[in-house]
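Example 305, ligand FO1.
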Amino acid sequence: MKVVALAGGVGGAKLLIGLDAALGPNLTAIVNTGDDDNLYGVRICPDLDIVTYWLAGMADERRGWGIAGDSFTVVDSLGALGAPNWFRLGDRDFATCIHRTRRLTEGATLSAATDEIRRALGVRAQVLPMSDDEVRTRIVTLDGETLAFQDYFVRRRADVDVASVVFAGIEDAKPAPGVVDAIEAAERVIVCPSNPVVSVAPILALSGVRDALAAHPSVVAVTPIVRGAPLKGPADRLLMGLEVEVSASGVARLYSEWCDIFVVDGSDASEAERAKGAGIEAVLLDTIMSDRAASARLAESLLSL
Ligand code: FO1
């Protein structure tokens, strides 16, 4: 079965490893790049790297991001020089970013550089950045500040009141080559339990993507909200900022125009009923991916829906 999965960071990566175990090269991950930035003189692509490291079996799975066993000599040394070093880019992770930056400087597209990196790391699944063009997620606070995404998420620990979220550059950005074609050719599209506001929404905002999902007969989305709270990250505060109810059925309603089946966690049965009440087909599955076996079980269930 050819499957496309839309993914952001850790929640996406956990489901992708289960899907990869079942599908290998028949899996294509389309990954958010709105979190990307230029820091320490290199291009950082946190979601692409998180996804690639998890699929390569080299991620620090406890922390979620970065490479297991990595050291932090470069960022610590930058700190000793008095430079800002709040973004904890590990040394081996730095090498990925230096290599990517060199390839981009040489004229390679982000898609090409991403493909080279995933092949070098032995990843079987296709990994596509959502776009080769720069899209930058910015958080506008109630105080009127505009923060770059990593500034908001890492330096400020997402501890700000969010007024709105902007995807700078989205109007001129095109989906990366192969993104829309992969969606159209897939037998099933799976939207990972990634942050709806800052991981899934930027992908949907690219021209042609939402229409391709709406036209697709089998789009399955997994809830990122279980019993009224996100499993990880600031999705609750971001949803509240957009006046979307922080619940599985709230996300189901947000996705209703293009989602065929919405997966609610088994512990949240009343939310499935609420989604059904709003005319959305909802099913209950165990969505908590506490280890690789749980990721594989959820992936198998999603593939057999
Ligand atoms: N997240 C943090 O909370 N603190 C960090 O210092 C940090 C460093 C980092 C380095 C490389 C990388 O690829 C990701 C990193 N992340 C860090 C995670 C990341 O910024 C976020 O999880 C994503 O942007 C949201 O998906």
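Summary: The domain at 3-65+91-132+175-304 is CATH 3.40.50.10680 (Rossmann fold).
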